[in-house]
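Re-run with default settings, no changes from the original entry. Doing this only to confirm the output is reproducible before filing.
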Amino acid sequence: MAQRITQADKVQCAIRHSLMGTSVRALKRRYGVPESTVKTWIRKFQSGNLVKRHAHWQPSWDHKDVIQHPLDPDIVNAINRGEPSYEDSIISLFDPDLDAINGIGHIKWSDSDIDKLIRSMFDRALEVIRDYGIHTDEFKDELKFVDSQFFFMICKAYGYDCDEVRKGVYRFVAERCAREEDQ
């Protein structure tokens, strides 16, 4: 029996290709549809025509400052199964900006929200480098983030000397590696 494809599946498929780089061939297998169907969903997504307005569409979602954010695939899968976890339940049951039909959240970001997000990205990177094992993917990802142009821009925006921050991180990592080798 063929898999039932939901609207959220179509959006997730297009997101996996457009934002995550998943190949059309892999998506064809994953969703059990012809390659031409996958390409159609991607084309519609890229032109802004894949997300469907529906009976539960909120007027506030049409505001020019509202951004459509894809939900993590695990959240969409939990919603599709009708078995959301505790965390997913909070999102699916109480968030008025969740669009479970399209598998996206409609979020209006304030300057304060953006500031909190950027500061938390900076803090989180340093916390992960301090607390996670040096061989974990999380550690490696955050070390790459510290090397990124975006990290440089964050430092510049908040008046941090990026070269000094990076030197401190690299010194800490080198000392930590040396300690772990001695054990």
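The first helix runs from residue 7 to 18. The chain has a mean pLDDT of 86.
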